[in-house]
Amino acid sequence: MALILGIESSCDETAAALVTSDRRVLAHKLATQDETHRPYGGVVPELAARAHVEALAPLIAAALADAGVRLADVDAIAATAGPGLIGGVMVGLVTAKALCHAANKPLIAVNHLEGHALSPRLADATLDYPYLLLLVSGGHCQLLRVSGVGRYQRLATTIDDAAGEAFDKTAKILGLGFPGGPAVERAASRGNPKAVPLPRPLKGSDEPHFSFAGLKSAVLRAYQTDTFGVDDIAASFQAAVVDCLLDRTQRALGRCDDVTALVVAGGVAANLTIRAALERLATTRGLRFFAPPLWLCTDNAAMIGWAGVERFAAGFTDALDVSARPRWPLDPDAERARGAGVKA
Ligand code: KG4
Ligand code: ZN
What we know:
The chain is built from eleven helices and ten strands. By secondary structure, the protein is of the alpha/beta class. The protein has a five-stranded mixed β-sheet with strand order 3-2-1-4-5, with helices on both faces. Strand 2 and strand 3 form a beta hairpin. Helix 4 (112-123) packs across helix 11 (302-313) and helix 6 (180-188) crosses helix 8. The chain binds 5'-O-[(R)-(carboxyoxy)(hydroxy)phosphoryl]adenosine and zinc ion. The site of zinc ion has 6 residues, from helix 4.
């Protein structure tokens, strides 16, 4: 049995967790920075990095205390090494390096996206490789065939905004506050999803990818007409996102017939309407469906610890001079998608 300390600091959550190879989360601690960034309506990288510096060491100490273990008891320390806001990533990675150096432990540099991608396997021991993963977060929207630790084939990505970004921008347009995803979901639950005609970008397209920028602009136009209520716009927006996600996922499923499960992960996977729609799709295709519990969808350190468990078991550890990476695609061989600002 291996015990891994996981550290996460790539965006606006500072987190530490202790995870075992038999899927026990002995402790998980998390500090959100919502109050820090709320006045700006989005994450301010420099403020995020400073907040990570203040929060991280006490969180690690609290996680160790909660779990009743000492640093000497852990087998390795896994920290997010990218992709993400580089100042924050460096805080977590440098802290992990210092602890590894002091306690003479191996370091595991984890790709944050791999943390999301493997998180459903922490929650459920029956999820086997290969599976089709819809990874939907604030920075990414991808379909990946996951065939093992470090083995990802990217089938689709977004050519403009990520799904979570579309939720966040919609929340901003509608004045629903920050963070946007849960606020839009709440408003949507009170609205009529058919009230506002909105586009479904790339639906039915031969191109495998996602696009959300046009949908966001359509939300802005609908709002500016003063014809529709905020709840109806939110519900119609969410319905459009669901349609796009389903259409693209269906297309990808048609191209990987060896998978037995459809899996959704990342912050947007916390959305109950999206989960339910994907589950229906999986059922009609005769596939098993997995979505991590809500707390494991949004950024946390347990998923980084679990990715650490899987990497450690596979014999992957990293030297202490490993670099923090603002960009780090899971599938380096994936073709570039068209469009500006691609979230590869
Ligand atoms: O995975 P995550 O915590 O951070 C990144 O790695 O990006 O994802 C955060 C994103 C944000 O865009 C947030 O608005 C979205 O996930 N999100 C949601 C929900 N909860 C979080 N989107 C839709 N519905 C939700 N309930
Ligand atoms: Zn994330």
